[in-house]
Write a structure and sequence with these properties.
About 35% of the residues lie in helices and about 30% in strands. About 25% of the residues are buried. It contains 5 helices and 8 strands; from the N terminus they run E-H-E-E-E-E-H-E-E-E-H-H-H.
């Protein structure tokens, strides 16, 4: 068992959120749930998304998420970026900028191609700046445009 587990307090729609997360990302499952009474709404759950264990509770309207906490998704390539981005948008998510998107339940995600991490790890500060400057103009990250900025720096 992991010692540190993110515990998410949802205002509402906990069951819908868990279903979306576990059906969107591989290596995901619902481990346990608890409801309010025999036919009551889902109140708490333990689940896994992309191999990461989470616990959650339906805490009521005084709970909300902010971009101060986000989930970072390491994507192998542009196809994987597009896949997750499109699923979140189709579910009602709101794109932000620089690869950030807020899902319909209020949780922020960073959908990042692995190549971006490689490019900004280059020892050439000029190339890194060009990649970061390109990233800052994007909503969804575009590997080809990042590669172009790197090559032209």
């Amino acid at each position: 068992m992991t010692r540190v587990t993110p515990f998410l307090m949802f205002a509402d729609r906990l069951e819908e959120a868990i279903e979306f997360y576990t059906s969107t990302f591989p290596e995901s499952e619902v481990r346990s749930v608890a409801s309010s009474g025999s036919n009551g709404p889902l109140r708490s759950a333990e689940f896994v998304v992309g191999g990461q264990r989470f616990m959650a509770f339906a805490g009521g309207p005084y709970f909300s998420f902010s971009e101060g906490f986000s989930l970072y998704v390491d994507c192998a390539d542009q196809a994987e970026v597009d896949q997750y981005w499109d699923k979140i948008v189709q579910a009602g998510g709101t794109p932000s900028r620089c690869g950030w998107i807020t899902d319909p339940f209020g949780l922020s995600w960073q959908i990042v191609p692995r190549r971006f991490t490689v490019l900004v790890g280059d020892p050439d500060a000029r190339k890194v700046k060009a990649v970061v400057d390109a990233m800052l103009t994007m909503v969804k990250l575009d590997v080809a445009a990042l590669e172009k900025a790197y090559a032209e720096a």
